[in-house]
Structures are given as structure tokens and as C-alpha cells.
Amino acid sequence: QVQLVESGGGLVQPGGSLRLTCAAERFMLDYYAIGWFRQAPGKEREGVACVSGSGDNTTGYAASVKGRFTISRDKAKNTVYLQMNNLIPEEPALYYCSPDPNVLGWGCRGRSQYYWGQGTQVTVSS
Backbone phi, then psi, for 98, in 5-degree steps? Predict the structure, then answer.
């Protein structure tokens, strides 16, 4: 059974950093364009960043995080990371990783699938 597991979230002070990890079981992330998504209570899920697959490491970022967040892969570990720096105060949100087809509209390329994990919560608060 395909599983996506997000981890690394937590409570962080404004200006702090977190690194989120997306791990996959029985699923090869390398072939897929992978996106990180964020969803706060009562709001629609929004794209944060993406990285292309199949050898093309082109990335894309939401304007609100560009310059602060970095998405990357570790092919050997079959993982995708989201390094979040200079975090700003905002409502808590769940962060998901997914090869959802929406990432193909963010400037990333690769295979896509409607796979989702449980998310990891990020709270930036003083």
C-alpha cells in the first residue's frame, strides 16, 4: 500500500526555522513532481513549493515563501524536504506533500498521482 508520511512540524517562534520531511513507502518519489501544500482551518489548501521529477529538479515556489523556503530531494532516502526559514506568525496549518497534479501548474514537471498523507502541523507563534 502506498503511503506518504510528513514529519518535522511543530511549534516555532517567529523568525525560526523548521525542516519538513516527506517520506514514501512503496512509492518512488523520484519520478514524480512533488509539491508541498498548506491548509489552515477553514481555508482551501494552497500550494507552497514543488520540485520536478524524473531527473528534472526544477522547483517552484509560492510568492509568499520564495526566498525563505527551499524544497529539495534526497533520492537515496526517497524523501523530499521543505526547509522553512524566517517563519512568520500565522495561524496553525497542516503541511502535506503530494504528487498531486496541481503541482504541474507551478512550473514543475513529472508524473502525478492523487496521493496524500496525514500532514504535519506547523505553528508559528510567540
Answer: -165, 145
